[in-house]
């Protein structure tokens, strides 16, 4: 009886997505880096939470799951457009993924409206944009 020796072949390819599987019975893929583990953790945490479709869309801008919960709570507690503006300004200042340009876009403001059921008057896009601009102008400047 003839004995076959197993030979290991290691192929290192950097960048891109390639698979070289000659007669393979299994493939193992390893991910290295903090970004990938953070994204996997985030997706798992988001799937465990029961979020509305609007909250899931907001999660595209707020990467941290705990921060997302805090902002959703703060948004649901807003009763005026000025309070909503303060929450939006804090999102920008805390570098959540919301930029100065994004905070006044109609699409972003429309995303926030269903998350703020307590605001009964002054829900127009123009009014909320004006309150956000006012809050941005009044924010305390950080001294470096």
Automatic annotation (TrEMBL):
This is Uncharacterized protein. It comes from the Bacteria. The lineage of its organism: Bacteria, Pseudomonadati, Bacteroidota, Bacteroidia, Bacteroidales.
């Amino acid at each position: 009886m003839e004995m076959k020796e197993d030979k290991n072949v290691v192929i290192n390819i950097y960048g891109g997505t390639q698979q070289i599987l000659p007669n393979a019975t299994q493939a193992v893929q390893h991910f290295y880096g903090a970004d990938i583990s953070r994204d996997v953790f985030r997706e798992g945490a988001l799937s465990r939470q029961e979020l509305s479709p609007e909250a899931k869309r907001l999660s595209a801008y707020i990467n941290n799951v705990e921060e997302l919960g805090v902002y959703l709570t703060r948004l649901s507690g807003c009763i005026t457009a000025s309070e909503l503006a303060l929450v939006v300004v804090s999102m920008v200042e805390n570098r959540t993924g919301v930029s100065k340009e994004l905070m006044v876009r109609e699409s972003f403001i429309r995303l926030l409206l269903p998350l703020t059921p307590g605001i009964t008057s002054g829900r127009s896009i123009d009014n909320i944009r004006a309150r956000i601009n006012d809050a941005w102008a009044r924010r305390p400047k950080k001294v470096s």
